[in-house]
Structure formats: structure tokens, C-alpha cells
Here is the input.
Amino acid sequence: MSSQFLALLLIFGLGHPSREPLDPAKGAQLHGRIKCDGYGVPEDLLRMHPSFSKAGSQQFVLSRYEVDKCSVETMFQCWHKQRIEWRDVWSATGALLSNPGVPVSPTALVPIDSCYEWGSSEPAQYVLSGWYNEGSDSKPMWRQVQIKQLSAQPETYEFTDPNGGIASLQITR
Here is the structure.
């Protein structure tokens, strides 16, 4: 094998954490506060403040349901095939807690759309999920756990991993 191929394999194939597929039933559905009227894409701004009890072994992920449409079409063929999947919009992990000296801003501003796309009255679908690291440092494997809402005001979510770690997320709108 060429050294360029090995470098690409290392960059794109190895060293990336594995994660099982998202199960929306284990997560919490998040929605924008502004109703879809079919005339735009109203946006809601979420202030996310996560906290983790164990450095590097817990993670919150906000995912959005997406359907790719044909973006490059000729008279006979679509060059970009349709994909339906959950895509990560935001994530926070306790990994930064294990790096002393690295400045950490625990609060993030995350915009979410109320509508699926411009001019649509179909609401966008977002799922907040909780994950814990079951693998080792050299081969991490993230597993999803059930997330529960503790309060509506302030909007607070929490999960406990099988190792006893607790992660919580407070959302301010």
C-alpha cells in the first residue's frame, strides 16, 4: 500500500469513535417555539449548558432528521442520490473536562429551525440523545442511553450511564 493511502485510512478510517445508530425513542424530541406557517423558516435559539460527572465518558448529541434531495440534476440523471438520515447539529462531551488548561465554555448557542425547509409547513424534527463511552481510549464505542426530562422550566434533561455517571443539560430559550 502507498503511504498516501495509509495516511487517508488513518485519518478517515481509524481513530474515529464508533457510535451505534440513533434510536429516537430513547431521546427527547425538541421543537422550535415558533409555529411553521409556510412562509419562511423561523428559528429558535437554544442556550445549551451541559454538565458531566465523568470526564470523557459521556456525551449529549442534538440531531436533525434530513432528507437529501437531488442537488445536481442533468436531463437524464441525478448525480447526488437521496439519503435519509439523522445528522448531528450539536454535541457536547465531558472530554474537554479532562484537559486542564484548555479553556472550556460550557454554554453553547444552538439555532434550531421550526420548519423542515423554507416555505414548508412541516415542522423540523430534532432529537436530543445521551451517550456513554463503553470502549477504551484506543477504540471508543459510544452507546445510547435513555434520556429523561427532569423539568420544563428551566428545561432540564438528564441521563445516567451504566457505570454510574450522570450527565445533565439545561436549555434556556
